[in-house]
Amino acid sequence: MQLYRVCNIAPGSYLSIRSRPQLNGDIVARIPITATGIEVVGESVNTETVLWVPIRYGRLTGFANSNNFMLAESPVTAQISPGKPSDSIHKAIALYPDLQVKDSPINREFLRNYNSRKASGDKTLLNQDWPLTIAKEAAAAIAR
């Protein structure tokens, strides 16, 4: 079983858990931004604006916006953004799920590329979409 943690929530706020996969769904619970141990318990529901995921946090269940939680032990996110993942990281993981698999070819290539750029002071890392850029490059490199 994979466990997730809250992310992309402003300090002092919380993750809203809704009764149904809609922005106007009743809020049945609020999870603190420091929460870990969130379980995905079913199939996601894609609406026009949000990908909703059925989750369980302790005894609480409901739907949460997929942009607001991520794998608690994701190798990529742990190394490149401890405590503050970006939307671009979520997009990269959505396109290339194996980024979250430790020692997968794309994970190794991504981290190699990232660490190389970081060491050289590459200005690509100043762009907020750099995780997606590096993920695409990593995918292309392992496809060769």
Write the layout of secondary structure elements.
Layout: E1 4-6, E2 14-18, E3 27-32, E4 36-40, E5 45-46, E6 51-57, E7 60-65, E8 69-71, H1 75-80, H2 87-95, H3 105-120, H4 130-143
Antiparallel strand pairs: 1-4, 1-8, 2-3, 4-6, 5-6, 6-7
Helix pairs in contact: 2-4, 3-4
Structure summarized in a few sentences:
The chain is of the alpha+beta class and 144 residues long.
Structure description:
Helix content is 31%, strand content 26%. The chain is of the alpha+beta class. It folds into 2 domains: 4-71, SH3 type barrels; 75-143. Strands 1, 4, 5, 6, 7 and 8 form a 6-stranded antiparallel sheet that branches. Strands 2-3 form a two-stranded antiparallel sheet. Helix 2 (87-95) packs parallel to helix 4 and helix 3 packs across helix 4. The longest helix has 16 residues, at 105-120.
Features:
SH3 type barrels; single chain; 4 helices; 2 domains; alpha+beta; elongated; 31% helix; 144 residues
Task: Please provide the count of β strands.
Answer: 8
Average pLDDT: 81
Percent range for β-strand residues: 25-35%
Unreliable stretches covering 5 or more consecutive residues = none
Helical stretch count?
A: 4
User: Main β-sheet, in a few words?
Assistant: 6 strands, antiparallel
Q: How would the global form be characterised?
A: elongated
**SSE arrangement, N to C:** EEEEEEEEHHHH
Class from helix and strand fractions: alpha+beta
Q: Radius of gyration, rounded?
A: 16 Å
Distance between the termini: 33 Å
The helicity comes to 25-40%
Number of domains: 2
